[in-house]
Amino acid sequence: MKGVFGLVLVVGVGLAGTAVWMVRGQFEAQAIELARGRAALAAATPTIEVFAVKREIAYGEPLTPDDVQPIQYAEPFLPEGAFRTLEELFPEGPDVVRVVLRPMEINEPVLAIKVTEPGEDAGITQRLGEGMRAFTISVDATSGVSGFLRPGDRVDVYWSGTVEEGGRGPRDVTQLIESGVKLVAIDQTDDNTIATAGIAQTVTVEATPQQVANLAQAQATGSLSLALVGQKDETIATAIEVDQKSLLGLEDAPVDVAKEAPPAPPPPPRICTVRTRRGGDVVDTPVDCPAG
Fold first, then answer.
1. Is residue 42 very low, low, confident or very high in pLDDT (cuts 50, 70, 90)?
2. Where does the Flp pilus assembly protein RcpC/CpaB domain lie (predicted)?
């Protein structure tokens, strides 16, 4: 009996060892195939050395040579504006640093659009396009979309005020005056990664000089309200004007032309004279006009 038990034990150990050897061989074969696949992929896709950040960097932080490292990047998919050498990234030397304009993650390539020029600060001027100006609008919880605005968002601007119409008196209207205006700052920050802690009091928009004049006049003569535009919304808003009558579907009362016609002017006064000749002159002398 003991011999049978020993035989079974030996056979079991042998089978277990065989199974372990086969599984190990299978894993080794898979590893070899995976390595071959990676080598083939690397050979098929050429790479190029570019500089990337080696830590998480937030908006407004200075970018120094200690913050970057070279990495291999697939050359066909290299984004525009990448830096291939430290001399390109810091052309004026390691002491003249750049400032980060957009947050970057570890091993993310440094692009020209994400940093300032060497020695420049990060500010609103970096966000303005050519020929554009920054204009500040006062807002509150209602007109400022209840604090949901961030730099980079686009808004439609509505003006509400009173207009005078000749003969009809004043009329309260709300009108769309600018569409798809880009926000560049909320209160005192232009960082779009920071959530607004409260209701904004001012927003700064990017506008052309003509738009700045329109907004300044509108803000001085009425109140401005903002409507947030969807991130992927490319529609162009048409001219919109609403007053109380159009809002409630009311129609203007018919005009009584006869009632509103101005009264006829009084006839000119009658003047009666008598002409008399005095020597060589003819003189008109006023006299009372006869009745009727």
1. low
2. 124-228
